[in-house]
Structures are given as C-alpha cells and as structure tokens.
C-alpha cells in the first residue's frame, strides 16, 4: 500500500500491553478495548486457560486445556497449582507435595526442581509455559506480536514470590511492566472510582491464596490503606478436605487405598470439585466416581459441606479484622465490599463477608474474570491510554535487617505506600575489615529466624581502616512492583560501593538468562519442526499425485528412461522425508517436479483429448 | 544551584525544569520536596492534597514510556514523596524528623529509663500485670484504671506537644525543640505502657 493511504494517528505505533491473571487454578489474559476491559479468548473461544502444564511424550511442555487433559492420562508428568510453589524452597512445601502427583528433585534447595519424565523444571519455568499459552492466545487474537504485560499477584506475596513471577514473564518472552496486586486490580475493574470518594474492602479468596485489601478512593486515585492475607489458603484447601473424605470412603468401601493412585486421585478431585461447585446453587448433591467398573457415591448436603468448611472460612476473618485495624478504621467506615475469586461463589463465604462487613458485597462482575479485567485497566494506565486513574499500593510485609543477637531492625513497615525507601549507614567492627554482610528479611516477627529470609548483601572491598571509620550508606527501595532494590555508596568517597547479592530463594539473574536463551532455542526448534512438517505435507501431496498418475494412460506414453527417472526421484524423496531437514525435502520435491514435467504435460493432453472426444462438434 | 540534566538550564529546586519540563533529581528533604516551610504544625488536609497532586505528577506508572533517567527520577521522587507523607502526617514522626534535621540526637528511648515522676506508678502497674499474667483476674479493675490514667497522660503529652509546636513555629526557638524532645521521650514511654496493658487486657479477656 502506498504511504499516502496510511492513516497517521500522530504517534508512533506502540506494542500492545496485555493484562494477565496468572492464577492458581486458571489463568486469563485481557486487554483494554476502546472503553472497557475484555478477556481474550483462545482460538477455540474459551476464556480460561487452566493453569496446568504437562510434559508431552514428545518432550514438549504443553499448558492449558491440553495440560489439563494430560492430568488424567499422565498425572506424573503434569503440574497444577504451581503458583503455590513460586518463590518457595523445598523445605517450605513438604506438606502439600504429598498431594501432588509430581515429584521434586532431592537436590532442590533455594529453588524447587520439579521432576517431569527425565527432565526438571523450576516453578517459574512451569509458569512461563502458562504465560506463553496466554501470550500466544493474545497474539492469535490481535494478529500481532505481544511482548509487554501486566501480571497480577496475590497482595500478600513476598519479595521472592514476586521476583519468581517476574522471572516467569521474562522466560516466556514477556516484559513485565508491572506486578499488580490482585485485590487492587479487582477494585480497578469495578470502576468504583465512579462514586469518587469512599472506602472499599476487597475480599479475594482464590484457588490457593487469600487476600484482603482496604482502599480509599479519591478522585481517580485508588489508595490502598492496608492489606492482609494468607498465601496458603484457598479453594484448593476445600478440595483437599473433600478429597480426603472421599479417599477414606473408598478405602473402607472398596478395601483399596487410592491415595497413591494418581489417576484415581485426579478423577476423584474432579468429582469433589464438581460437587463443591454444585452446592453453590443446590442444597444437596453427590460425589460420584466410576473407576475400573467400581462405583462410589456419597451424598453431600450443603449443611454438612458448610460445617466442614467453616474452619477454612473462619481463617479468613482474622486477617480481615487485622486489616481494618491497620487501615485505622472501624468496620462502619467501610462503604462497600467487593468479592473476588471463584471460592467467593460459595454461599457460606458470602454470608461470612456480609456479616463481618455489615454490607452486601458486590458480585456484579464474574469473580473469576475481575482480576484479569483490572490488570487490563492497569495495562492501559501504563500505556498512557487511561490517565484519570492511579493506583497507590502498599507493601504487605515489613522489611528489616538482622542485627546483633538475631533481632530484626525494621526499616520499612508493612502497609507503607510503595515505592518506599529507607537508608542505613553501616560501618566495620574491627580494624582492617574488608566486608560487611547484611541479612535482609521480610516479616513481622522480632527474630530474624522467624521471618522470611530475603537475601544476603555482601558489601565488598571496603578500604582497610580502623574499626568504625568506614561509612557505607545502603539504600533499600521497594519499587512499585513490591520488589526490593538495594544500592550502596561509600560516604567518604561518594563512590558506588560494590556488593554481591545472594537471594535466599529464587533464581539468580544468570539462571534466568540461561532459561531465556533455552526458551529461545526451543522456539527456534519449534519453528524448525513446523517447517519440516510443512515440507512433508507438500511431499505427501506430490507423492500421492504420482501414485494416481500410474493409472493414467499418460504414464504409458513415457519411455522407460523417463519412468525410471521418476521412480528414482520418488525414492529419493521418500528417503529425505524423515531427515528432519526441510531444505532437503524441498530440494527433492523440486527434483520430482522437474522429472514429472513431461508426465504432467502428457496428462494434460490426455485430459484435453478425452474432453474433445466427449464433445460433439 | 544545579543545572537541568536535559537542557542545562539552571534549576531552582523545582521538580520539573521550567524550560524543557523534564523531571529533575528530587531533593531528599521532606519539607522542601512538598513545597512546605519547616513547621511542626501542619494542616493535614493541605498535606493530603499535596500528596495526591504530586502522586499524579510523579508516579512511575506515568513514566513508563519516558527515558530511563526520568524513570529513575520518578521512582526516587515517588519513594521520597511516600516516605515524606508517611512521616509528616504523624505528629510524633514529624517532630522526630525535624529534631534530627535540626541536629538533635534522638536515640532509642530505652525502657529502663523510667521517667522519675512515673517510677512509683510503673512499679505498681508491673505488679498488677504480673498478677494478671499469672491468671489472677482480680488485678483487672486496677489495670483498667491504670490504663485510663496512662491514656490521659498520653493525651496530656500530645496537648503539650501542640503548644510547643506552635511556639517553635512562631519563634524558631531551639529551647522549644529541646523540650519537644523531652516530651517525645516521655510520650513514647507512656505509649509503650498503654499498648502493653492493652495487649494483656485483650489476652485475659479472650
Ligand atoms: Zn531542562
């Protein structure tokens, strides 16, 4: 097209920023349409990508519905709820690993290594596969590359969990422009700022995490006053509770322990989830399983279900009360409550929220989509397309350093608006000391060993001098993603102080870089495989045509040498067919094309002759 | 006086260059950053408005498509803004900040250093706390009474602080600041007692 006809919008073409809800159970990708956020469907029209990743027989990671399917056929090569493992060490997750069909490698330490087949993957790599699926859905939808995203995380995620999420994005080939807290994103999606002023509580009970956030709205500014939560509480816990009951039942009724039978467990898990979901609308249902000719059925009333899950629902209430207190408010000062997450469909959860906040909660938006929709709004804010809204979020956990006797000295308190910073001056304790080690932790407890170790910073190459003379200023800055950045400066010289960072959990930068390179190699391999397949399809077409031609009278019109040239070319193409080299296949196709030129001509003539024969002149 | 990093024009401590409008390196001084005089008494409504308006201008969300330098300045400026708002809206943190900027040493108030006039009362209180922790709930009424008394003392300290704030703001008198430091230490001590009693009463009620 000539440039004359191109429309100039007066600004450079920018890549699209999408919003992603990377959930424990399901993930979604959304974008900002002209006026409102919309969830992007996959090519099959489905809005939800199950957060399940499996290693196929061909050694490829597959995510989404395909992964979910393999959870039944290949449970030991399939990972679900990987979000629960993000930013964790092996020791943190011993309990829940018992319920997972996959295994983790014994060498796992600072980063969990998940064993699938004969390969191992870290949680960020598994999450990256889900992100790749979402990215490719968005690219298919727009017909253009998508390279920038906003990804949501539970508000109560710590530094390591946030960093792991960001790493997953990088591995998937996405520049993560911002991590946004899920409840805050939900508030944004509800467009509650239309009422201009007020205080809103967002209660977010998802598959694996619980968050409560309290926000103040003021002329388009969403100011989070306080947040609280539990990164280990969600719908999964309800499923596991019902699953244990069903396993006990089948053990007594069938005399068979299914708890080590991964295939049966996955079928049973589907059955309890179905029953759970039904109880949100009907008063009684059953958990049903048919397995190798055996039948199991247990009636489950909503009443019993509610008794069973009351302890889980109650566990959300203390964080809510603490959050109201931390926001410096009384419950009467909260104007509205928003429900987020699939588990808030449960009537008992709604009742508990209504009772605690003394307000009827908002449920207009689909609780499974609202976070992704909010992420899309934030994406539009970052892209500069939405200018009348601004999020001011907080850090969920206090940041401190370990001091004498293992006591924590808090530098940045929880619920501080981010970005937030603190500066400390460090010195040496003995003459000639060259290094100072700073242990940074996150959490509310007094002792460092009761908090979450975040990283150790080693201030190196300090000029030798008498004790207490060195003065090194260290600046701790939590950015708008809730991730810590540390810089250090020698006050005497004004120069940047060199230091080494050893994160306690998570991948080093080098490891992430290596994974990105590997994934680019993989993408290259995928591309090559596709080219080979395309060449093979073409070869199939021409080989079939040659076979059909053997019955044609034109074949008989060829001389022996012409026929044997064709036979030779056919054989060579068949040999090249499985060589994994699309160029070789194409070369042989060209050759076969050349030697069958005469044949094709003959066939054309035959066709013309027979057409003439059948036509009366 | 610094020059604009972008166009080189001299700057007068403003957030943005008056000529090319690019974001400048932010000052770390909380008062100067917010465009306020260094006063101990502040209008909280005015402070909040400044915070919201500056957030709209400076937040990193608004600088994603800008140069790396402006993005860095936006991050630093917003961190200072948030830190400043957190400190200046709280009268105790604000007074501590001003004391530090004026060269006063405000070390940690140690719990051993009981203000002498409170010695007897604190002794009684600790006994009652011990009894309550030991499961003797007969100490409850006495503690509730003591609690009310300490809360009143805290209010009294706050009133005294307001007076001293006004005196310093009008006269710039450093003696007033020295007195502020004394009241702050006393208040901090009382505050710790109040929260300890609060905690014990809540625990024994549960
Ligand atoms: Zn300038």
Structure report:
The complex is a heterodimer of chains A (617) and B (206). With 617 residues, chain A is α+β, with helices and mostly antiparallel strands. Among the domains of chain A are: 12-93 and 121-190 and 369-383, Nucleotidyltransferase, domain 5 (2-Layer Sandwich); 395-521, Substrate Binding Domain Of DNAk, Chain A, domain 1 (Sandwich), CATH 2.60.34.10; 524-612, Substrate Binding Domain Of Dnak, Chain:A, Domain 2 (Up-down Bundle), CATH 1.20.1270.10. With 206 residues, chain B is mainly α. The radius of gyration of chain B is 23 Å and the shape is elongated. The mean pLDDT of chain B is 88. The chains are: A alpha+beta (617), B mainly alpha (206). Chains A and B meet through helix 11, strand 19 and strand 22 of A and helix 2 and helix 3 of B. The complex binds zinc ion. Zinc ion binds at residues 4, 6-7, 9, 17, 19-20, 22 of chain B.
Topology record:
The complex is a heterodimer of chains A (617) and B (206).
Chain A: E1 17-22, E2 26-32, E3 37-39, E4 49-50, E5 52-55, E6 61-63, H1 65-73, E7 78-80, H2 94-97, E8 103-104, E9 114-116, E10 119-121, H3 123-142, E11 148-153, H4 159-171, E12 175-181, H5 182-189, E13 197-205, E14 210-218, E15 221-230, H6 235-254, H7 262-278, E16 284-291, E17 294-301, H8 302-314, H9 317-326, E18 336-340, H10 347-357, H11 370-383, E19 390-392, E20 399-402, E21 408-412, E22 420-426, E23 436-442, E24 452-459, E25 472-478, E26 484-490, E27 499-503, H12 509-549, H13 553-556, H14 560-577, H15 582-595, H16 597-613
Parallel strand pairs in A: 1-11, 11-12, 13-18, 15-19
Antiparallel strand pairs in A: 1-2, 2-3, 2-4, 5-6, 5-7, 8-9, 9-10, 13-14, 14-15, 16-17, 20-21, 20-23, 22-25, 23-24, 24-27, 25-26
Chain B: H1 30-34, H2 44-58, H3 68-88, H4 91-101, H5 119-133, H6 140-171, H7 174-205
Helix pairs in contact in B: 2-3, 4-7, 5-6, 6-7
The complex binds zinc ion (ZN).
